[in-house]
Each structure stands twice: as C-alpha cells, then as structure tokens.
Amino acid sequence: MRSAPTISIVFPARDEGARVAQTVVSAVETCESPRDIEVVIVDDCSQPATRPDISALAGRVQARVIRSDVHMGVGAARNLAVQHARGDVVFITDAHVQFSPSWDRQVGNLIKPQRILAATIRNQDHSWQGYGCRLVVPYMGTRWNTSPPGSAPHVQIASSAGTVMERSLFERIGGYDEGMLHYGGFEPEFSVRAWRSGAEIFLAPGIEITHQFKAPHECNNFITSVRTALVHNCMRFGVAHLPDLMILEMVRLHSSESLEYIQAALRLLEQRDAWQRREQLSKSLRHDFEWFVNRFALRDQVGRVIPASGVVNQEKLGVNTEDSCLPDKKLLT
User: Fold this and answer.
1) pLDDT tens digits, residue range 105-149?
2) DSSP secondary-structure letter at 36?
3) Which domain holds residue 180?
4) Domain count, the chain
C-alpha cells in the first residue's frame, strides 16, 4: 500500500489536452521521491476532445482528475483541487509547465508553517525568467520581477505557476477568492491577503518552473474575450484592500482604459458582495493594507505616496459612469 503523499501538485485544466500528461510526467521524473508525490487535476469543463487524459500514467504516479461540468474559473478550480489533496504541502501550478530537477527537495528545505514559496518562472525558450511579482496600484495588476529582489528573500506576489505552502496555511488564509470571475487577479489578491494574514512569501530561486506562455496573438484574443471579468476582478481586488481614495482612483482608471466594459463590471461588483467582503477582511486580517504598503515601501504606479486607509462611502461609486466614475485625468497624471 502506498503511503499518504507529502506534496500534492494541484492545478486546473481547461481544454489543455495532452499537455496535462506532459506536466505530470515532468513533475514525477524530476523529483527525488516520487512515492511522496500526488497530482490532483480539476478538469474545468473542458470540451470532450481536449479533456486531460492521464490514463497512460496509471501505476506510475498517484494522480486523479476531478471533473467539473460547469466552468468554475481559476480560483474555484484551485480551491476544489486543494480540497481533494491529501499532501501536507500543496504545490499550485498550471497545466502546461515543466519542473526543475530535485524540486521536491528544495520544497522540503525551504517550507515553513507560515511561509509561501514563490518559484522562479522561466519562459519556454529560456529567454526570460520571473522572480515573483510586485503589485501595481491603483490598477491592481502586477509586474514581474525580472531579477531577484536584492538581498531580501521576500516578494510581494507569488506566481500561480509556482506557489507552494502547507495545506493548513492555504486553508487558514481562505483559499482563492471565489467572488472573482474565471480568470485574472487571483494570485495577487491571495498574496496580499496572505501577507495581511501574517504569512510571508519567500522567493525560491532553486525551484524553477518552465511555463508555456501564450503567443502574443493568442494572448490578445484571450484577454479580449475575458475583458469584463478582468476589469471586475481588478476592481474587486481593490475594493477588498485599497484605501478609500485609491478605490475611487482605481475606478476612474479602469473607466478610462475600458469604458465599454466598466458598467457591466461595476454591476458585477455590487452583485457579488464586494463591499461585504471588504468589511469581513478588515475585521479578520491581522494587518491592514497600510502595513503592507509600509512593509514594501510601496508607491502607486506613477511613484506617488499611497494614502492611509479610511472608511469608504459606497455611494461615491455607484454604477453610473456618467457621474463620479468618469475618468478624471488630473488624478491619473
């Protein structure tokens, strides 16, 4: 009988087809203790022809596919995968990656109860690599660190292709925000919430994940197809964590850049209880956002000081882009 796994590799897969089996093979063949590894895959409502197929790996690895007949999205699918995981540690990754040699030994050497590991991400052609990310406010996106962040071992934001922690820590933080839609913003929001909850995100340059990124034309087409969800997720992230004045500025910025999507995104923001989540997090997290700002000497995306947190007035936002949500160029320069 096989023993319970020590590390559970978990990831969602939507129309990834044969690439899923390649990822599983890479994880197993590069680790030092295959018997201590399991893989949990959530098939996020793939088309029949492109469902993940790991049948050829039977007997070689502890691997399971959890099928969803509805499109859950990245956050809910990752959460479901972790719920099915049995390992003490969860390694959250993507369906189309390759693992570096002895990655499991590196995890064992670095993991601690309140620590999240951020793996180094390489492009498939090895022309680029990322060492975690940094937060961009008030847009609420991220930029990659393309070199290690100096002598400090910590990064603001982990990468969803290589985020590793004890399963109990994942559960204590609360998993990914299922109020977000389908794609975009899940890892940044989780990372900020992790820091605010008292965890740390520790750069692990010895764990390298080679990721198959979309080609530019594929990326543009995909982003266009999920634009409303992206705008909503960025704003939900901001409502959950930003100080009042920056929430207003965030909405004006997205109105300026995505005017045709903003009304639908704002309606979703209200329908999905973003303000209630802000209130709940303010009561339950150990640190406020100002602590995070001070921890990393964070400035906004044009270098200005970020204002202190305060009490938000929801009526200032509304959903009418012809009123307070119109872009104010003075605030964006």
Assistant:
1) 999 999 999 999 999 999 988 778 999 999 999 999 999 999 987
2) G
3) 7-213
4) 2
Residue 103 shares a structural domain with residue 251: no
- Residue for token digits 């699918």? 77
Are residues 266 and 232 located together in one domain of the fold?
yes
User: Which structure tokens are listed for 212?
Assistant: 């198959």
Exposed, middle or buried, 4 (CB in 10 Å: 0-12/13-18/19+)? Answer: exposed
In degrees rounded to 5, what are phi and psi of residue 4? -65, 140
What are the beta bridge partners of residue 40? 10, 64
261: nearest Cα among 229, 300, 228: 228
Say yes or no: 115 and 180 in one domain: yes
Of 213, 235, 267, the one marking the end of a domain is: 213
Token couple for 56: 């050829």
Angle at the Cα of 254 from the Cα atoms of 291 and 298, rounded to 5 degrees:
20
Whether 273 is in a domain gets the answer yes
pLDDT tens digits, 66-112: 999 999 999 999 999 999 999 999 999 999 999 999 999 999 999 99
Q: pTM for the complete prediction? A: 0.89
